[in-house]
Amino acid sequence: MNDDIRVPVSIPLDSDGFIRRECPNCEREFKWFSHEEGDANAEVVDQYFCPLCGAGAGTESWWTPAQLEYMHGASGPAIDQYVQDSVETMFKGIKGMTVKPNRSFSFGIETPDALAEPDDMMIAEPPCHPNEPVKVPDGTAKVYCLVCGNAFAV
Ligand SMILES: [Zn+2]
Ligand SMILES: [Zn+2]
User: Fold this and answer.
1) Residues with Cβ within 5 Å of ion ligand 1?
2) Nearest-CA neighbor of 85 among 69, 68, 102?
3) Quick check: 154 pLDDT over 80?
């Protein structure tokens, strides 16, 4: 069995549509604008630059520890369901065999409470890529563009 288990986990955005991120280099938090899927305004990149320190990293390297923990926890019930479904499918074709799913089966991972995203930080819009605004901690004077890494003053 080598199926890909896709677990839909939604990470909350703040009321302006920004998602919290943590830089893998300087470990400080900022937010970037979360474009809708298929948004023509979204830059297609294979790495982003940290607005705070300017270091680049792959697009999947920016989860905050709270988000990782949340995704780990939230995927538990989905994996349970996946295992349950596979077992049921396996026995469905056998005549005279009744499958009584045992819904209490669990890996023992509890579903965490939903994450909350406060409306903190200030918006900074890179002059080079105004379609990719970021939010940085109040008082930040210099910000790097998420897409190209160019520094600009806020
Ligand atoms: Zn950084
Ligand atoms: Zn730019």
Assistant:
1) 23, 25-26, 50, 52-53
2) 102
3) yes
